[in-house]
Design brief:
The complex is a heterodimer of chains A (489) and B (455).
Chain A lengths: L45 H13 L21 H7 L2 H5 L10 H18 L3 E3 L5 H18 L7 E5 L5 H8 L3 E5 L9 H7 L4 E6 L12 H10 L3 E5 L19 E5 L16 E5 L11 E5 L3 E5 L18 H39 L3 E2 L10 E4 L1 H7 L3 H10 L6 E2 L8 E4 L7 H20 L1 H5 L12 H6 L13
Helix pairs in contact in A: 2-9, 4-9, 5-6, 9-12
Chain B lengths: L7 H11 L29 H13 L5 E2 L12 H7 L2 H4 L11 H18 L3 E2 L6 H15 L7 E5 L4 H11 L5 E5 L9 H4 L9 E6 L10 H9 L3 E6 L20 E5 L15 E5 L12 E5 L5 E5 L6 H4 L12 H38 L4 E3 L8 E5 L4 H9 L2 E2 L2 E2 L10 E4 L7 H20 L1
Parallel strand pairs in B: 1-13, 3-4, 3-5, 5-6, 6-7
Antiparallel strand pairs in B: 2-8, 7-8, 9-10, 11-12, 12-15, 14-15
Helix pairs in contact in B: 3-11, 5-11, 6-7, 11-13
The chains are: A alpha/beta (489), B alpha/beta (455).
Chain lengths: 489, 455
């Protein structure tokens, strides 16, 4: 099962004629400014295009086709209605610089989205502009820096990051001109408070935390962490990657966080789209409200909505996108939140947690080594295959590939790095008990095969469009664009 | 109405396996003082029918305008097949292709996209996309600092023809790392003033940054500036409209050796204007700069049986491997938008895209020509791609309002960002506009000018 590269389908002079402007209009651009030869693009018919890309889609695993328990990514069902309504023609055709009088419907949705995000985080102000979690992190740390700078506290340039954090956290600290300071995790999965006390000081700008952490457990000492960091003059950043676990259960603001980003493509079910677009909206408390990125939607009078810009927030960290961020994604999240309501949101965290704890217990009972199994799982948990790897030579990567052959997308592998040979498993609330049982059975089956026929596990996957790929060759003999002749006959 | 499939029997059986009596117990590690028992600030749940009524009503308040706005977002006709296919669940609901064997569709599509972008720009290697044009420019500035080992400077020499918002975004994103933008003025023809470069002789900059076309629609003569930059150990960053690349000389062919980095807004390639997003940013560079490029990159390789296949590659640049030493903190890109753009480019081909570009140019030409026949109206610059600066003998804000009342978005008022142009409006008539639309615009302008004359 493979599909030619679209350039291999191309033949000179073939067109998809309905999409070309019928006549070639005259122009007044000097010849010297024009390109000599047309760019190399495929010349194919519409039917060829439709078949090619439909076939490519069929080479993918997706939530719509397979269980996709990718830890820390919250691969829950993306309701069809959210996409359909966000793609109403009036929304698609609205120019971002169009007058606000002709955008009141859209702006009202955005204003209400801001209000709902305050209501689920406990924060007091929201900016919707960050276009992904990493950009939300950037906005958050930039606001922390701006806060200290406004207080003439220029020495604060260290961002504390637990060793279990997502790679985006330390990378963000660097992008903001800060230094990342890593602290260890204690044996029970909570932050090592003594280590934290040792690193805080007059250079501390803040700390970035995910709670529940990427280890799949709730940070029980969060109020002590907040106390230590705040006493040292630093601020607390909440990475909202795992908000699905505590939606409607705890307000991040109550835990002591000053700033938060929320991945709408996780908790609020906007599509992952093969790697984006995401949305990393940020919320802050009163300390940081003046520094939010612009634009923000404001309300004047009872029901007129306007853009708030640099003029309204002169201390803003500025703009992060050409317009207002991923508007269409924001609409999808708005629609999803209105469909759920407050009780529905609480049921999200309830069932996400139920599914994770159930699957964890099934695997514990089957004899798998689950990290922190004495703790309550949040919405995700970690299986360590170190023991099985020692016994059979079959690694977490082998398990991942063998799962693909059994019709399951693999969990996150080798993250967090604290746990050897790990799978980070996040089932989400939208999966049935029967699918969870089938997944557990698949893991047991692979383990059995690892003991009886390890070479067969190492040979997986066999049923995918390709077998294991040569990553070393990919990096050494770089082939990043089609070089072949577009026309062969 | 959460999307939860559990029956009561399921829940009872699952709680028994876990060994708890209720789901509430699952939250018993959260300190008591922190637990809440409701979300009072969230409106009650709606049904699908209810949310459909609500959103139709909201959308109904927004539609109906005929847009002559460009200024960074361009309404083009989008073939039906583009979003019919991009909306397939296998694209829409997949994630970043970490498991390559189960993501060959997305990976091959990105490889095809990378190929198309190298073709359009004339440069060697493309990434899998960034967030949007403005943030792509900010990333290009950061990349130039990393890649330019000769200059060590964190300063950019940026043409005033670069979108003012892009410049603001580059300051916001690059400021923390000391990125500084120094402005290059425009000449009377609305292009970057080559003569102004000479006063920077002897100063260090990481790169010279040019837009093609400029924010004002004019077309840069980029060769001399490119060669000057290279002679002074600076890289060249080009911010190109991708529709324009079907027609205009690509950055890879600027000057003796070409520009070094091309970046910009991918929205014109099959993405609706949709209130500003989601769009995608593109970035393409010369091969020697590859390892400083941010974002995902897909490579073609072979599997253990020697069959071709696709995988994410050069990941040692990225945050999940390099953490604080990564080229960028970027993780997510704009995969779904790239899916649409790749389908769009496949449907149009080089000739279709060239004709679209020419149609946009011709429509804007027609509009500008007709407006220039009105009393007190002139076209500021002679050579432009698909946007033109129109000068009026009075402030344009009232004109924009008057046309707005007739359902016409007249264009972008330049008075805030380009006060030196006087009463100037940036207009854009793409292939989505008809001759009737253009005539309606001209008639509405004539009557608005007549009325304000009379007043």
């Amino acid at each position: 099962m493979s599909e030619p590269v679209i350039f291999e389908l191309s033949r000179a002079g073939r067109r998809a004629p309905t999409h070309a402007v019928a006549e070639v209009p005259a122009h007044t651009i000097p010849e010297a400014l024009l390109r000599d030869a047309p760019p190399v693009l495929p010349e194919v018919s519409e039917l060829q295009v439709v078949r090619h890309f439909t076939r490519l889609s069929q080479l993918n695993f997706s939530i719509d086709t397979e269980f996709y328990p990718l830890g820390s990514c919250t691969m829950k069902y993306n309701p069809k209605i959210c996409n359909r309504l966000a793609m109403l023609p009036e929304f698609l055709e609205r120019h971002p610089l169009g007058d606000v009088e002709r955008g009141q419907g859209f702006l009202e949705c955005m204003f209400e989205l801001q209000e709902m995000l305050k209501a689920v985080t406990g924060m007091t102000a929201i900016s919707l502009t960050p276009m992904a979690g990493a950009q939300g992190e950037f906005a958050g740390v930039a606001m922390i820096r701006a806060y200290h700078a406004a207080r003439q506290d220029h020495e604060r340039c260290e961002i504390i990051v637990p060793d279990a954090a997502h790679g985006t956290n330390p990378a963000t600290a660097t992008m903001c001109g800060c230094t990342a300071v890593e602290i260890p995790t204690g044996p029970d999965g909570d932050v090592d408070l003594d280590a934290l006390r040792r690193v805080v000081g007059p250079r501390t700008a803040g700390i970035m935390l995910t709670n529940p952490s990427t280890l799949g457990v709730f940070e029980r000492h969060i109020t002590e962490v907040a106390e230590i960091v705040h006493s040292a003059g630093g601020l607390l950043y909440y990475d909202g990657a795992n908000l699905n676990a505590i939606l409607g259960r705890v307000f991040p603001a109550d835990m002591g966080f000053d700033v938060i980003h929320v991945n709408l493509h996780k908790t609020f079910s906007t599509p992952h789209g093969g790697g984006g677009p995401g949305s990393g909206v940020v919320g802050v408390n009163d300390r940081l409200a003046a520094f939010l990125p612009v634009p923000i939607v404001g309300r004047t009078g009872a029901d007129r909505f306007v853009w708030l810009t640099e003029q309204d927030l002169p201390q803003s960290i500025g703009r992060l996108s050409a317009f207002m961020g991923n508007a269409g994604i924001l609409l999808r999240a708005y629609i999803y939140m209105r469909l759920l309501g407050g009780d529905g949101m609480r049921r999200v965290s309830e069932y996400a947690t139920l599914n994770a704890n159930y699957l964890m217990q099934q695997l514990v009972k089957a004899g798998f080594d689950v990290a922190f199994s004495e703790r309550r799982a949040s919405h995700e948990f970690i299986v360590s295959l170190k023991g099985i790897a020692g016994e059979t030579g079959i690694t977490a990567m082998d398990f991942a590939k063998a799962l693909l052959d059994r019709g399951f997308h693999a969990p996150t592998t080798y993250f967090p790095a604290l746990v050897a040979e790990c799978l980070l498993i996040e089932p989400t609330e939208t999966e049935t008990r029967q699918d969870l049982d089938a997944f557990a059975a698949a893991l047991i089956d692979i383990r059995d095969q690892a003991r009886t026929d390890p070479d067969e596990v190492r040979a997986a996957p066999r049923t995918m469009p390709v077998r294991r790929l040569d990553d070393v060759r990919a990096a050494r003999q770089l082939d990043l664009a089609w070089q072949g002749e577009p026309e062969s006959s | 109405m959460p999307y939860i499939p559990h029956t009561d029997d399921d829940v009872a059986a699952m709680l028994a396996v876990i060994g708890v009596d209720s789901t509430a117990e699952l939250f018993d590690e959260i300190p008591d003082g922190l637990l809440i028992d409701a979300l009072p600030g969230i409106p009650a749940a709606l049904t699908e029918a209810g949310i459909t009524r609500l959103m139709r009503a909201r959308a109904g308040r927004d539609g109906g305008a005929v847009s002559f706005l460009g200024a960074g977002a361009y309404e083009h006709y989008i073939p039906a097949a583009v979003w019919d296919i991009a909306n397939r669940g296998e694209f829409y609901s997949a994630y970043t292709p970490y498991q390559a064997e189960a993501s060959q569709g997305t990976l091959q599509l990105i490889y095809e996209f990378q190929t198309m972008m190298t073709g359009l720009t004339g440069l060697d290697v493309s990434n899998a996309s960034l967030y949007d044009g403005a943030s792509a420019f900010a990333e290009a500035c950061l990349m130039a600092v990393r890649a330019n080992r000769k200059s060590k400077s964190r300063r950019m020499l940026v043409s005033r023809g670069v979108n003012p918002v892009y410049r603001a975004v580059a300051r916001a994103i690059g400021g923390g790392q000391g990125i500084e933008l120094v402005e290059l003025p425009l000449d009377p023809a609305g292009r970057t003033d080559f003569d102004a470069l000479t006063k920077f002789d002897g100063e260090a900059f990481a790169a010279v940054c040019l837009a093609q076309p400029t924010f004002l629609g004019t077309i840069e003569e980029a060769d001399a500036i490119t060669d000057w930059a290279h002679a002074h150990d600076m890289l060249v960053i080009s911010i190109c409209n991708p529709t324009g690349l079907a027609l205009l000389r690509p950055p890879g062919e600027w000057g003796e050796t070409g520009a070094d980095i091309a970046c910009g807004e991918g929205q014109p390639l099959g993405i609706p204007v949709s209130s500003g997003g989601p769009y995608f940013g593109y970035m393409v560079c010369r091969k020697p700069l590859l390892r400083q490029m941010p974002g995902r990159i897909v490579g073609r390789t072979v599997d253990i049986e020697g069959r071709p296949g696709f995988t994410l590659t050069l990941q040692a640049r990225e945050q999940h491997i390099r953490r604080s030493k990564a080229t960028s903190n970027i993780c997510t890109n704009q995969g779904l938008m790239v899916t649409a753009a790749t389908i769009y480019l496949s449907l149009l081909g080089a000739e279709g895209l060239r004709r679209t570009a020419l149609q946009c140019h011709a429509n804007t030409n027609l509009l500008a020509g007709k407006l220039a026949q009105l009393e007190g109206v002139s076209v500021a610059f002679d050579t432009y791609f698909h946007e033109a600066v129109i000068r009026f003998d009075r402030p344009v804000a009232a004109l924009v309002d008057a046309l707005g009342e007739r359902g016409i978005l007249a264009g972008y008022d330049l008075s805030e960002h380009y006060p030196e142009l006087g009463n100037a409006l940036l207009v854009c008539a793409t292939d989505a506009r008809t001759h009737e639309d253009i005539d309606a615009y001209v008639a509405a302008t004539r009557s608005a000018l007549d009325r304000s004359q009379a007043a």
